# Entry
Amino acid sequence: MAKRIEVSGLNAYYGKTRAIEDISMTIEPRSVTAFIGPSGCGKSTFLRTLNRMHEVIPGARVEGKVLLDETDLYGPGVDPVAVRRVVGMVFQRPNPFPTMSIYENVVAGLKLNGVRRKAQLDEIVEKSLRGANLWNEVKDRLGRPGAGLSGGQQQRLCIARAIAVEPQVLLMDEPCSALDPISTLAVEDLIAGLKDQYTIVIVTHNMQQAARVSDRTAFFNLAGPGKPGRMVEIDDTNKIFTNPGEKATEDYITGRFG
Amino acid sequence: MTSETLEQGATRALGGRARKMSTGRTGDRLFGLSAKGSGILLLAVMAAIAVFLIVKALPALRADKANFLTSQEWNPDAAQSRFGIAQLTFGTVLSSLLALILATPVAVGIALFIGFYAPRRLADGLGYVVDLLAAVPSIVYGLWGLQFFVPKMNGVATFLHDDFGWIPLFGGDTVGGQCILTASIVLAIMILPIISSITREVFLQVPRANVEAALALGATRWEVIRMAVLPFGRSGMISASMLGLGRALGETIAVALVLGTASGISLHLLKPGGNTFAANIANTFAMAGKIGQSALIASGLVLFVITLLVNMAARAVIARRKEFV
# Structure
């Protein structure tokens, strides 16, 4: 079910401002790809173009091609809603639905897909929460509000919600930036476990994290002050962190940035 | 110098900043006192109103020879004073509930349209117009209802009665425009802006993160609204409708003008006439004698209590799911 993503010539705009410029890359299935780079260089914007979430912001638009296996996500007649059902997303801040219980949060996406059978829902809830390493902590209180969990648990609940619908790709936008180190570790373990089944793309500010969890790493940077963000290079994570092809990458990962 | 306390030393060392902090504390105290004062004043006003109503109502309640709660008569100034509020309660509650039922879906629909469907510029204009509706004085609604709407409703009432008379609400022997249904529609229009603008405000507070969470799961616009917006806005929508209900219950002049004549308890919505607490007070207070005025105040007391109960019920509904949101 994991799919390959092929991006070519992608530009994203907020109104008249171009936020990212001419990005092309291939993301392999069943792998973890990390996006690193300074703040405001368009990593998150680019990530959000991969499930057509960029365009929900008023005035935002995208040019270029994103192929999910053979399908162009921006092709004519492609419904963004359908795209988002196969490309799941986990956000920077945990955002469980505050009015829903833990159980309801996990099945929220399934309900959209018309799964109604209680037995089936129960099964998927357990499977997803186990998949998100949360089952043991919440199995006795599935009816309690999801917003009552700790931050780290909430984030894992959001991951469970995202994987409950068995997406083909899982996008994670700095999923650990609001979490303490222990919860971060839990999420990182989880990512390692999930990559057997999903194509995972993760934006992170934490370079150790990128080094720990990812197979491939892409470095993003601004083309210059006031210019759009661009991808400097993408390569195997090992290579990026030991012997990057570009000087800018090396400066960034060794902390000599600027 | 040696006797300087730690605090004085710190104050001296911090100089201007410490002085600034202490004015801040005075400000805090002033604000705290005025806030407390406003709260107490509000309670005092409420209590004073209740006491006034009870004291003024007592003479009539003592003189009443009929059952105050269940009688439909209204002859407080007769030699044998007889009056009851049954038909007033009935008319008030029926017209207000009907108005609420008519107004709430439309109001929520307007709020959703403005918040989630309309293009930005249209949304701003529309929001402004809705707020403007709230500023129209109720006498204007009353005159509009009587002069324009009632004649139109004559035909509608006849049509409903002829073609849907099998529904008990539209049955009855006589039909006319000056009926409870017309009054309810006018009331619905009057409470629409309150419900709509509060609901709109509540919807604006739905966290962007929740809307995005729903979108990212592949929710359509309507599914986003069902998943993230309506559940979040639920308690706000209830408060909004209760405020609307409160206004409908107390609305006087528009109802008095539209209904015109009083009539007994009847579930036939198209039957001409009807009465509510507020309309009854407005129509008869000037001509009422001593006991009559006292009786009207007694009915006002009941309206006061009903409104209070409505608000308490609303709070109970909101509190029930407090742990969520």
